[in-house]
Specification:
Layout lengths: L1 H12 L4 E3 L9 H8 L7 E6 L6 H14 L4 E5 L5 H6 L6 H19 L4 E4 L4 E5 L13 E4 L3 H10 L2 E5 L3 H17 L5 E5 L1
Parallel strand pairs: 1-2, 2-3, 3-6, 6-7, 7-8
Antiparallel strand pairs: 4-5
Helix pairs in contact: 3-5, 5-6, 6-7
């Protein structure tokens, strides 16, 4: 913990906007680590994962709102749908690739509506929600920004409908340009605009 605090304080002092906390079986829990670093930093934002299939959307909404309040609006959300199939099976997720993105679409529909202050009733293929309501809102409205990466057509459709910043891997400029254009077009068809980033 002292070493993680040192890294966070250095990033904060150097003026970085935010840091990604990794998620998965080989990592410390990102939500707990980020929470422990709130009082050690002043401006630094924390990009923390929500995991459809591993947590309920309403629980994730309460966690996000709480962290957002405690950090005074320094939460960014990393939507993690996929990962290692062996690790997913170890966490009890046995859905196919496209089913995981169907679940992510339903999850983000509920999550966004709850954080926007709605009472949520929802019936989908994977989720059934009755009368969910977030009683104590977060700071950022309508919700903390959603970051997301995924190259498949199913992933790109989720990005177009829900996220704020679409991330691509460090591929060739031609590949990145094609992917950005596909996601931008899908978002426009849904009446939305996105920002874009690259992970290297």
């Amino acid at each position: 913990l002292p070493y993680m605090r040192q890294i966070a304080q250095a990033a904060d002092d150097l003026g970085y906007g935010g840091v990604l906390l990794p998620t998965g079986a080989g990592c410390e829990d990102a939500w707990l680590v980020a929470s422990s670093l709130i009082p050690a930093t002043r401006r630094l934002k924390f990009l923390v994962a929500i995991r459809p299939g591993l947590m309920s959307p309403t629980l994730a909404a309460r966690m996000a709102a709480t962290f957002d309040r405690l950090s005074e609006g320094r939460l960014l959300i990393n939507v993690v749908t996929g990962g290692d199939p062996v690790e997913l099976a170890g966490d009890g997720v046995h859905l196919s690739h496209d089913e995981r993105y169907e679940l992510t679409d339903e999850f983000l529909t509920v999550w966004r509506r709850a954080l926007a202050g709605e009472t949520v009733d929802f019936r989908g293929k994977h989720l059934a929600i009755d009368g969910a309501k977030l009683l104590i809102p977060g700071v950022q409205r309508p919700y903390p920004p959603l970051y997301f990466g995924g190259s498949s057509p199913a992933a790109q459709q989720v990005a177009a409908r829900h996220v704020d910043l679409y991330l691509t891997w460090g591929e060739t400029p031609t590949q990145v340009a094609a992917k950005i254009e596909a996601v931008r077009s899908a978002a426009a068809a849904a009446g939305r605009t996105l920002r874009f980033g690259i992970r290297l």
